Amino acid sequence: MTIKRYTSAQLKELKDETNWERLRSMSDDDIDFSDIPMLTDEMAAKGVWYRNGELLKELERKSKPTKVSLNSEVVSYFKSLGDDWQAKINEVLTQAIKMKDILT
Questions:
Q1: Which is deepest, 29, 52, 72, 74, by most CB within 10 Å?
Q2: Which residues face 54 on adjacent strands?
Q3: Is residue 88 a contact partner of residue 78, using CB atoms and an 8 Å limit?
Q4: What are the φ and ψ backbone dihedral angles of 13, each rounded to 5 degrees?
């Protein structure tokens, strides 16, 4: 087996042969999962997990519990985004740091 690497520019030029209409019309029952092994706790423990392209274990290692006061509007908004609302706040703040101009 050979692994071929593409740049993002090359990927954009590839012809998309996906039958999107067929996929949109499929229900979960139409999908054949029979050749996919069930994920066990052992497999998950040995797995390499990524979030937004960054190794999750490194993200967790960087995290430090801290107490921050946020106004109720901010908390309500992020809670409305789902159970991982605190991680989303962290992602927004991380992006803000990368865009240093908005902090000065």
A1: 74
A2: 51
A3: yes
A4: -85, -15
Q: Report yes or no on whether pTM surpasses 0.85.
A: no
Q: How many residues does the chain have?
A: 104
At position 53, the amino acid (one-letter code) is: G
Continuous H helices in 1-104: 8-13, 20-25, 41-46, 56-62, 72-79, 85-98
pLDDT tens-place string over residues 37-68 = 887 877 777 777 777 777 776 555 566 778 89
Q: How far is residue 45's CA from residue 26's CA, in Å, rounded to a whole number?
A: 32
Tokens representing 18 are 């996906």
Contact 48, 60 (CB under 8 A): no
pLDDT digits (tens, 9 = 90+) for 1-20: 899 898 989 988 998 899 99
